[in-house]
Each structure stands twice: as C-alpha cells, then as structure tokens.
Amino acid sequence: MAKKPRWAAIAPEEIKKIEKNKVEVKCVFCKGTGKDPWDLLSKLSKCQVCHGKGKVEILGPVVTCNFCHGSGIQPYTTSRLHCLACGGLGVVTKITPSKTCPVCGGTGIYPRRPHPVACHNCHGQGIVAK
Asked: What is the pTM for the complete model shown?
C-alpha cells in the first residue's frame, strides 16, 4: 500500500490558514535584484536563494535572523554562502511561545572552537519552542 504524503493529512481549513499566513519579503541575499551578488558562475546567473525572483515567501509573523543579524550571508566565514540558519532570507518565522535555548544560552552559536557554527538545537536563533 502506498504511503500517504504528509500534506494529505492536513485539513483544508489548515491549508487555507497556512496560505493566509505567508509573507512575501525582499530577498536580502541579492538585495532584491534576483542576480547572484558575487557573479560566481557568470554575470547572468540567478540568486541561489530567491531563484531570480527578488522576493521570497515565508510563514509569518517573521523576525530578524539572530545568527546572521538579517544580512542573509553566512557569518564567521569568508565564503560567499547564504546563512544556514535562515536560508539566506534574513528573517525567520517567529516562535511563540519560546524560551532561551539551553545548549547555546541564547547566543545562537554552538559552543565550539575554532570556527563558530549555528547551534544544532535552535538552528542559530537562540530560542526554542516551550
């Protein structure tokens, strides 16, 4: 017997609620241009976050990403990667109710040296659901 997809178990009114909560935000990785900000492949290549649209959809309400501080760029590296905590969006869906992450103590950075990485428990946000 075929396994039902996860979305098949969601009631139609829940799907409408999810669609209603979507927020369209400007892509901060490419600053809304839709082009790769560093021209890695060519000057015509598309942004790896918004796929050339300049805008992205996310479930609302949203808050600024704590790990990259809203820049959308992976912090603590010299590479040209998008932030792993927010996916390059610069914002994340707000968690309510929330509490401080017990692993990183609210910093969003996993206590590891020499290179800081996003906390595996809170995904770099410093808060987790209660």
From this structure: 0.71
